[in-house]
What does this fold into?
Amino acid sequence: MKTLGIDIGGSAVKGALVDTKTGRFLAERHRIATPPRITPARMAKVVAEIAAHFKWRGPIGVGFPGVVAGNRIHTSANLHHGFVGCDGGRLFSRATGCPVALLNDAAAAALAEMRFGAGRRFEGKTLLVTLGTGIGTALAFRGVIYPLEMGHLPRDGKSWEQLASSAARERDDLSWKDWGRRVGKYLAVMEALLWPELIVVGGGVSAKHRKFFKFVRHRARMVPAQLLNQAGIVGAALWAAENRR
Ligand code: BGC
It folds into this structure.
């Protein structure tokens, strides 16, 4: 089973051909850097470029950093506002000529981590948090993934995403210690509301977990994502392979 998975992010679009039985990449990942907030039409061209790079003609799964219902995009906190209300499935399938299934990027990462990564064989309630340009959240329980939007919970007139994302660490020039403490405060709110048994921390920065995990307070067991920043691509491919409409 071979499917193309694509992960749309704040600064780049990444794609790879994924073996959906094993979660492994079948060829090297292709990454195209994008300027901030490019329009949906330009983004569709970038997605088409990725499909063309792999000469792909088949189902494509696309992870998008916003609320997705069906194939429709409802929010776009860190990308162009023109995505709001747009049928992302249609936009990307017109551009690529392939059937496209869309889902939230954190839900895609959770799908991959629960199937092949840090949550494999774990049936209890799991919270996946991705720390990147934004904060992505999804809950997993007994094989079902629930996309959440917990990065937008307010705190002191801002959102937690503005305070504790990886982008916030860079923007505010925080030490790993100060940022780790902020992430811990955020997780305390998540734990009070959701009571996960396991917390999986993903996003590109999870590769550097040794630098900041020691400063993050948590009650549940906390582990770094195993698929690191490949999880979004793998999960998007799984979604397309298993949810063909
Ligand atoms: C979006 C979420 C997304 C997260 C991570 C947030 O700003 O609202 O849908 O999962 O960023 O990309």
